[in-house]
Amino acid sequence: MHSIQFPAPLPARRAGRRPRPPQLLGTLGLLLGSLPFTPPAQAQKQLVQERQTWLGVFTQTRFSDRWGLWAEGHLRLHDQFVHELFQTVACAGATYYLTDDVRLTGGYAYAYLYPDGARTVGQPEHRPWQQVQWFTRFPRARLMQWVRLEERFRQQVVRNDELGSDFDFNYRTRFNAALFLPLTRKQFAPGGLQLLLNDEVMVNFGEQIRYNYFDQNRLFAGVVYQVSKQAQVQAGDIYRNQHTIRVFYFHNLDLRKPALAPATLSAP
Q: Among 205, 201, 194, which Cα is nearest to 177's?
């Protein structure tokens, strides 16, 4: 997922010039029109309908004009939302700021899939990743997008009850677009509420991928509460062939000297 940290507002536009809306309208159409893709019959995965809860914490820490740190942690529960552990993910990376609006990040994630059903052992996964993230401001909306490439090394499970010594490997690309629309007068200021429309599409590729090229489409709708200029809470529901409640907390730190830091650090 993504850490939401929008840079300071751009200077006011000259009178008589209006911002062009195609990017906003196109992204809104993508978010509202996205539907889960159904692959051919021979390539379909076996989908299990269940209820899950996803909890996540994200931080972006900026040390200088060019360098920062990305960190995130996830706890995912299932079986009537909260009865059993499903997966944990810990992720960290170094961020290079091309500009305040465009950032490059490379990092590593460790994921652990807990025992479930016939599989009586947990399955670890090592996941190096690279990402480009960019931000766009509109008069009454904010847009965050990123593209991430992951190299997934999943330890093999033998006979459902022991871990093997080899790893399955594949690449996965992820495109994430998040559109924020204000719901209250405070808009993106502390205390404001926003509507969040978010879609993340994931595609697998690599030598070991033959049929399951399409991985997931996570279509999310929820609300955002702006706790402060540096923090916000998101809560809502993910549609991905099952019912998933998602609650994420985002926090941003700018450790640069006050003279270098923008007036607004994280308001989307």
A: 201
Q: Which two tokens stand for residue 27?
A: 């992204």
Q: Measure the CA–CA gap between 168 and 157, rounded to whole angstroms.
A: 10
- Residue 266: strand pairing partners: none
Question: 9: how many CB neighbours lie within 10 A of its CB?
Answer: 12
CA distance 225 to 195: 9
Say if residues 82 and 105 touch (Cβ distance below 8 Å).
Answer: no
- Measure the CA–CA gap between 173 and 209, rounded to whole angstroms: 13
Q: Which CATH number fits domain 48-254: 2.40.160, 1.10.3470, 3.30.930, 1.10.10?
A: 2.40.160
Buried b (16+ CB within 10 A) or exposed e, 137-160: bbeebbbbbbebebebebbebeee
Would you kindly state where each structural domain of the chain is located, as residue ranges? 48-254
**Residue 204, Cα to own-chain centre: how many angstroms?**
17
Per run of 10 residues, the mean pLDDT along the chain (length 268 residues) is 54 47 53 48 54 95 97 92 90 97 97 90 96 95 97 93 91 97 94 97 89 88 96 93 91 82 39
> Two tokens at 58?
């994200």
